[in-house]
Amino acid sequence: MAFSIITYNMDRLIIESILADVDEVIFSPTELAVPSILLKFHNGNQEKIKHAFDALKTLKADKTCSLLICETLVSGIYDLEICTDALDEPVRISNKVIAPAALEELKSQVKSNPEIRLAVVGLEQETVLQIEETTFKVHCR
To answer: Contact, 65 vs 81, CB < 8 A?
Structure first.
């Protein structure tokens, strides 16, 4: 069955191409609220990024959303996959550096509670995407 989901004139591939410009992935633990993975962009396309997150939130609607963090063949480089039943394939953010300390802190957090938020540095309130489950995939060598 083919999916033809277009929201805000954005499909999965357009969302992926906008989010591909992530320069840094930061884990931000908080004591009172749900911890966050923050995506940092240096390209200045804040409106496009905000619209991409709006499209993701609209697509997600009442469906669950999960995040898969995949180790690549290169040490310290990871692929992020935002998965939801609302999309035919995950939204992939490929080849991003995650600091080892941040990754270990994230893994520790996810063990106690797999729920996190995904947001953009500087647009946290406008771009928060609730992730109900976060998992890790180690590359088989």
So the answer is: no
pLDDT tens per residue, range 40-51 = 998 778 899 999
Instruction: Supply the pLDDT for residue 2.
Output: 46
Indicate the residue type of 100: P
Exposed, middle or buried, 138 (CB in 10 Å: 0-12/13-18/19+)?
Answer: exposed
Assign 60 a pLDDT band (cuts: 50, 70, 90): confident
- Burial of residue 141 (CB within 10 Å: 0-12, 13-18, 19+) is exposed
Residue spans of the domains in the chain: they are: 12-137
Cβ burial 31-59 (10 Å sphere, 16+ → b, else e): eeeebbbbbebeeeeeebbebbbbbbeeb
Q: What is the dihedral of CA 19, 95, 110, 91, to 10 degrees?
A: 40
Whole-number Å distance between alpha carbons of 36 and 124:
9
- pTM here? 0.85
